[in-house]
């Protein structure tokens, strides 16, 4: 960090500055001297530092005096002329050096959250698109409420074999009989053949539900299939 004398005379010895094009705030400064170059990466100016700059400018009406006081108190390169004038103007207009709150989409109200809860508690299979139409709430807001505030999760529907009331007793009797046979004959399970069957398409059809392609980006991988292609059923035991 250059001392006071170096800082006052650096404009004569050479200085390289980089400013943020949007805010005009100095973000990089390099001082070139006869024997060395001192480069400093500047941090964002805090609200208290901005307030000090505005106060000093009210007292002295001098940018140079403000920069000198800033460097003396905070021991780092001072803000640019444009930054100091911008903070001063903002203080005159708003009474504060803080940035105005950025505009954005308003958060979902508690009443809307409760309406969404009641809707999906009553109809768990309702789509977010249909709920958006019925409730008059943006679909993206409904998804955010379900995930982040209600902690609901989407679950896939499972297809299972239908069981009749009589099937329960049949399964129970089968399990009891198998346990009895195993107790009587320890090698009973070794003589049982388990079977299964599968369907193979001659065209090389792939079940997309069992296939995943991992990567940092979507490869948009597609496979063309032939409708009603020949297939072979294989039974194995």
From TrEMBL:
GO MF terms held by the record: nucleic acid binding
Stored InterPro entries: DUF4817 (IPR032135), Homeodomain-like_sf (IPR009057), RNaseH_sf (IPR036397)
GO cellular component: nucleus
Compartment(s) where it occurs, according to its Swiss-Prot or TrEMBL record: Nucleus
Record's protein name: DUF4817 domain-containing protein
Segments of this protein annotated with the region Disordered: 97-125
DUF4817 domain: residues covered: 49-97
Chief location bin: nucleus
Superkingdom, taxonomy of origin: Eukaryota
PANTHER family: HTH PSQ-TYPE DOMAIN-CONTAINING PROTEIN, TRANSPOSABLE ELEMENT TC3 TRANSPOSASE-LIKE PROTEIN
């Amino acid at each position: 960090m250059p001392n006071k004398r170096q800082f006052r005379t650096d404009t004569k010895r050479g200085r390289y500055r980089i400013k943020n094009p949007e805010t005009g705030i100095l973000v990089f400064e390099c001082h070139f001297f006869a024997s060395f170059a001192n480069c400093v990466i500047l941090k964002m100016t805090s609200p208290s530092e901005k307030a000090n700059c505005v106060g000093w400018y009210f007292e002295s009406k001098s940018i140079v005096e403000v920069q000198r006081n800033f460097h003396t108190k905070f021991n780092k390169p001072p803000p640019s002329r444009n930054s100091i004038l911008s903070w001063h103007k903002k203080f005159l207009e708003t009474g504060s050096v803080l940035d105005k709150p950025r505009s954005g989409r308003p958060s979902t109200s508690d009443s809307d959250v409760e309406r969404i809860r009641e809707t999906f508690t009553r109809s768990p299979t309702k789509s977010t698109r249909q709920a958006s139409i019925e409730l008059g709430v943006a679909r993206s807001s409904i998804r955010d409420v379900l995930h982040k505030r209600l902690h609901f999760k989407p679950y896939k529907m499972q297809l299972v074999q239908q069981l009749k009331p009589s099937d329960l007793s049949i399964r129970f009797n089968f399990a009891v009989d198998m346990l009895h046979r195993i107790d009587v004959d320890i090698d009973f399970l070794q003589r049982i053949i388990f079977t299964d069957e599968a369907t193979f398409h001659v065209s090389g059809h792939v079940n997309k539900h069992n296939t995943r392609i991992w990567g940092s980006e979507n490869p948009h991988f597609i496979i063309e299939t032939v409708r009603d292609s020949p297939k072979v059923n294989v039974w194995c035991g």
